[in-house]
Amino acid sequence: QENLYVHRQEGTREEKKRATKELLSTITDPSVIVMADWLKIRGTLKSWTKLWCVLKPGVLLIYKTHKNGQWVGTVLLNACELIERPSKKDGFCFKLFHPLEQSIWAVKGPKGEAVGSITQPLPSSHLIFRAASESDGRCWMDALELALKCSSLLKRTMIREGKEDMSTVATGGEHSINFYSLLRAHNIHGFQFNDSDHLKDPDLYSDKSDREGEQDHEESDPEGLEKSEESDSDTSERQDDSYIDLDPNEHLRETPYLEQSHEELGEAGEAAQTETVSEENKSLIWTLLKQVRPGMDLSKVVLPTFILEPRSFLDKLSDYYYHADFLSEAAIEENAYNRMKKVVKWYISGFYKKPKGLKKPYNPIIGETYRCMWLHQKTNSKTFYIAEQVSHHPPVSAFYVSNRKDGFCLSGSILAKSKFYGNSLSAILDGEARLTFLNRGEDYVMNMPYAHCKGILYGTMTLELGGQITIACEKTGYSAQLEFKLKPFLGSSDSVNQVSGKIKLGKEVLATLEGHWDSEIFINDKKTGTVDTFWNPTPDLRQSRLTRCTVPPEEQGDLESERLWQHVTRAINNKDQTEATNEKFLLEEVQRKSARERKAKCEEWIPALFEQDPVTGEWHYRYADTRPWDPLNDLIQFEKDGCIQTKVRHRTPMVTVPKRKHKSDKPKSPESGCSSPEPDRQDSSGSERESFTPSTHKYTQQLNNVSVLRSRAAGRTEGGSFLQQRDYVIIVFLILLQVVINFVFK
User: Fold this and answer.
1) Where do the TM regions start and end (predicted)?
2) Between 745 and 601, residue with greater pLDDT
3) Domains of the chain
């Protein structure tokens, strides 16, 4: 029975091997055509051109005529994704695109052509097709999906360098050789393909069965055998989901995080956004208002500490990610319209967390950083948040958010400006954020509303949100517009915190939104006419917020927000406004002194974690990794010293935003098995170096002097005298001089 079982197993393996070879011979045969027909293609000038399209396994050939005589271009399907594109016109539209916006075109034609036939310019990273009818379009999409799977299968087979014999391919003719060479030249390492389950049968691509079939050849070439085994071993590791996890004896060097112990949530409505100012504080406001005039920018005005919220503005910006699980859901949502709705829902979810009363966070000091993370229980992932104050005048805060496992990242910068209007003032957040879904290559660009405070001179001080914001995705054509409305002069309590908006595809309005951003918002679908609850921060939803984790103070650097402002925060919590003002003055004085020294030396501040694009002016995170998550290779995402990294099984080329190099940049020596580059302050052993840049090093030294100034001030207060030895000598000298003068004139 055992022999019969083994015989059946070998027969099954041989049958699978035979079927695999037949399938591969079919998809590599240049004479195989999956589908061919006329399609309209939209060019870069937004006009349509009718071209003859021939679909083969792995490639889409485009000609001007159906006789295949005038070649226009070849699209390599192994790097493409396919989506349906809604259209108002007749026919059916679909889109082929590269998720990372790289070129989808081959460099040569099927017969070695270097230059294609002249036609209107076509986009490099995507193509939009229009079929004559919906049935034709659906047929094309089914055929393309089949071709995409075939290209993934072909790519996986071709990766195995030790088993590929180009002499065998040569028997298929010149066309086949060109086809292979094109796929080889455009094989994008590090980009993973989502093969279907039936292509992941371990026996179907068993390296063992292949070696058995080629045993005679390997024995005659021992050197080739070693190379083949190395190549096969590497390939099997990449394709086996059960590959071993991290070595339990290997310690992952990452920043320790602790769950946030306390969190303040304001109540819904106007009550949590109003505050009655005491008579003592009113006198301080009047003193402050004497320094300003209507329309003046308040960025250089020192504000009293009683209106400060005891945390930094960099910390305040992290409030938008307590519901980052909405972005995790949006990343896997197949429908583009539903994806936009989830993005809008996440955007609105960042506003209902508000401090009680009218409070303003600290203005960050240049070089100040903040980091935290959220735990996703459902997906067993982490969302990391990194922020840095990259400029003080003007005050610019840059931030970066990443969760590669769930498929999204977000980056942006905010220029904070304040305007005084007499009895009111506005805090304007100028800038934009860019949300990216890594697996789709979609960018959602959005801006921020402004905060409006009224009742400064008379009436009750009230804080509201106002302004129009836009969330737009250029790739899908969907956009959302939201308007945060201020309370009218004669408005009731129901008119507080109102928001309205609409979701559009091009210029067509698909749905409208209406409600209150801190309570319930309703959505009205224009096609169906149904009205549903879009957003409502109920107690259950607040309870399901993601858990935020912060870095313990003892693990923080001197320029991290919580540690930097710890004395000011302690004084505010103790309601000691005098002490808070003194501590705040010490920090600001160090910043002003550092600015004067840099100006005298004609030096510019170099941020530690972000760098500015010299062309667009945008701020980019130095260690951004925008590769889609590869479950076969990526193990865990972690953060160390402000650098977000990924622990991997095998190194793969990075996909990052363009960076401008500085003279202070040093060669990276990353930790073994980490795909993201280590920051300059950490070597391969994980030990910290002194600083990121000379600017931060000098600034840290000056901040250390703050403790000296603080101790001196404390010593003077305890001693009850502000006179030094030199002062006593001068006083004695003046007294003696006065005595001599009196004696002479007497």
Assistant:
1) 728-745
2) 601
3) 28-157 (2.30.29.30), 270-601 (2.40.160.120)
